[in-house]
TrEMBL record:
InterPro entries: G_HFLX_dom, GTP-bd, GTP-bd_M, GTPase_HflX, GTPase_HflX_N, GTPase_HflX_N_sf, P-loop_NTPase. Pfam families: GTP-bdg_M, GTP-bdg_N, MMR_HSR1. It comes from Thermaerobacter marianensis (strain ATCC 700841 / DSM 12885 / JCM 10246 / 7p75a). HAMAP family: GTPase_HflX (MF_00900). This is GTPase HflX.
Length: 611
């Protein structure tokens, strides 16, 4: 068995247990508590006998559904409700924990990671780092971490019995409120572990559901999260036994001979059906909106990508630069799943005209299938876009794995559009990795996957001038500058020469090349945005008609309309009216013709330059 990292008695720099010294009462002293973006408790839990399973109450929910929801999902903001709702919890919890919870302090989380012999493409460190980020994003303070490498899972407890005892001991020593497992737990494992560890245990899916519940702002987002929570809960009801009694809803709710579990299941199924109906309504509404957009011929560009890649920051940068209407733009934040509800903004794209740019929810590896299913309505924005900008955090050495993860999810969703890979955060990419993405899609280069060396923010900071001229220093930069063209979808790109050399290692390229090209940008500094604009324009112009049209002087409205609907390349006043040369959506050309405009030298649609 591989060496196992010991849980130390003190919170280290990175927020995990890392050092020996305990505080005055034998409790660990955090040197630097993890920043808590929104203080609060990790709300997810499935043990119905214990508190904290309620999702945020919504006034519009029907009584029964509300009850099921309260029992079924993560709790609302702040954990004080927990103590109020379950007096038994007060007895179980040590006094200092209760005091902290009442004070609204962050929940203290102990992380448990398990690596199997044959595992996914992320390293153990990467998995655990991501779990730590998830916990932090849920508002918890990570106080320790325990790892185990095993050949296979222990059926009853996932980890071995000795390890369970170690976790139980660490939980007590570190005074952790919650133990978070990196793997999904079966209901039986959850129950056994809670019993053995003596405290709240949740798994990764619950943690992600919890973050989603906290972030959902729109009604649609809330419905989707609740649906995902109930779908997660339903198969876990069996085995929870009498503890679930509160789901039954009390006297008068049970049919003759019906067990409590059956009642619970029935209620949850009914609520799931209700939620599906409501979401179908949302979907219908969206599709009406979409049809309107399609009729108007406005192209849609959707930003997709791994969580925290910088989609929202790039969205804001694009809206700032090309936006037509003033208004608040969401800013990105350094936490996972910051964006839940999609945001669509209209911009005037140079060389194209009006374009709708959509910011979307981020993806993550091992994304719970329920979440994908529940978020289908939201993701339809993605599925119907004309072009996907696949944003990736190029400052992370593991970016190729993230690209593959996102590509696989998009494929599963049935997204068929061309994808332009946008290597973001190039300002934070260290010297020697400026060509990140240059060899993207060429097939695996290194013998060992994932050996690209870290190009961390710290390295970048130390690197001095390392990032200043990355755009200029980039590898093959055909037109437009900084865009690496690739072959058509589903094939390897045309750029030559093996895997990209990155830093001290070989940057492994993702398995397949599904991008329409690669652009390197920094959403922060704005570098590369012009290249991105040109690459997107080159693609979208393929759907535009280049026309020369005569607009009579007595129809200034049509002239304004051409300016609004497309890009005007030239305009000349003549004896009868204005002659405009413009690129316009096909639908707009038809409309103008019907309105009485005269067209000259109608060119065939142009083929794109870089795609
Ligand atoms: N150094 C650097 N940081 C960036 C850049 N773009 C975004 N970030 C930071 O990366 C973090 C995540 O940015 P977001 O825009 O919220 O990322 P996102 O992809 O929208 O994340 P989710 O909504 O959680 O999926 C924030 O702290 C940003 O400030 C960039 O170009 N350079
Ligand atoms: Mg975002």
């Amino acid at each position: 068995m591989a060496p196992v990292r010991r849980v130390a008695g003190r919170t280290g720099q990175d927020g995990t247990g890392a050092a020996e010294g305990n505080g005055p009462e034998g409790r660990p002293v955090p040197e630097r508590p993890d920043p808590i973006p929104e203080g609060g408790q990790v709300r997810a839990r499935l043990d119905p006998g214990a508190p904290g399973r309620q999702v945020r109450a919504r006034p519009d929910a029907p009584a029964e559904g509300g009850q099921a929801r309260k029992q079924a999902g993560p709790a609302g903001k702040g954990g004080s409700r927990r103590a109020r709702q379950d007096p038994a919890a007060e007895d179980r919890d040590p006094p200092d924990e209760r005091a902290r919870r009442r004070a609204g302090g962050p929940e203290r989380a102990l992380l448990v990671g398990v690596a199997w012999e044959r595992d996914g493409r992320l390293s153990f460190d990467e998995r655990m780092d991501e779990l730590k980020e998830l916990a932090r994003s849920a508002g918890a303070q990570v106080v320790g971490e325990i790892r185990q490498r095993r050949g296979r899972p222990e059926p009853a407890t996932l980890i071995g019995p000795g390890k369970v005892a170690e976790v139980a001991d660490a939980r007590r020593r570190l005074d952790a409120d919650v133990v978070i497992f990196d793997r999904d737990l079966t209901p039986a494992q959850l129950r056994n572990l809670e019993r053995a560890i003596g405290g709240k245990v949740i798994d990764r899916t619950q943690l992600i559901l919890d973050i989603f519940a906290a972030r959902a702002r729109s009604r649609e987002g809330q419905l989707q999260v609740e649906l995902a929570q109930l779908q997660y809960l339903l198969p876990r009801l069996a085995g929870m036994g009498e503890a679930l009694s509160r789901l039954g809803g009390g006297i008068g709710t049970r049919g003759p001979g019906e067990t409590r579990l059956e009642v619970d299941r029935r209620r949850i199924r009914r609520r799931i059906a209700d939620l599906r109906r409501m979401l179908a309504e949302v979907r219908r509404h969206r599709s009406v909106q979409r049809k309107g957009r399609q009729r108007a011929g406005i192209p849609v560009v959707a930003l997709v990508g791994y969580t925290n890649a910088g989609k929202t920051t790039l969205h804001a940068a694009l809206v700032r630069r090309f936006g037509v209407a003033a208004g608040p733009v969401a800013q990105g934040r350094d936490r996972l799943f910051d964006t839940l509800d999609p945001t669509v903004r209209r911009v005037k794209w140079p060389g194209v005209g009006p374009v709708l740019v959509a910011d979307t929810v981020g993806f993550i590896h091992d994304l719970p299938p329920h979440l994908i299913a529940a978020f289908r309505a939201t993701l339809e924005e993605v599925l119907e876009a004309d072009l996907l900008l696949h944003v990736v955090d190029a400052s992370q050495p593991r970016w190729p794995v993230d690209v593959e993860t996102v590509d696989a999810i998009l494929d599963d969703l049935g997204a068929r559009q061309p994808r332009l890979l946008v290597m973001n955060k190039m300002d934070a990419v260290a010297a020697g990795v400026e060509d990140a993405g240059a060899g993207w899609g060429e097939g695996r280069g290194g013998e060992e996957p994932g050996i690209a060396q870290p190009a961390t923010h710290a390295e970048a900071a130390l690197g001095g001038d390392s990032t200043a001229d990355w755009a200029a220093a980039g590898a093959a930069s055909p037109v437009p500058d900084g865009v690496v063209p690739a072959a058509s979808q589903g094939t390897a790109p045309a750029t030559g020469g093996g895997a990209a050399r990155v830093g001290r290692g070989v940057m492994p390229a993702p398995r397949t090349g599904r991008a329409g090209g690669v652009v390197r940008v920094s959403a922060w500094t704005g570098q590369g945005l012009d290249d991105l604009a040109a690459a997107v324009a080159a693609f979208l112009q393929q759907g535009l008609r280049r026309v020369t049209v005569l607009v009579p002087y007595h129809r200034p409205d049509l002239r304004t309309r051409i300016h609004d609907a497309g890009t005007v390349e030239a305009e000349e006043p003549g004896s009868d009216g204005w002659t405009l040369t413009a690129r316009l959506p096909e639908a707009e050309v038809g409309r103008l013709r019907r309105a009485g405009c005269r067209f000259e030298d109608q060119a065939a649609p142009e083929s794109g330059a870089v795609f």
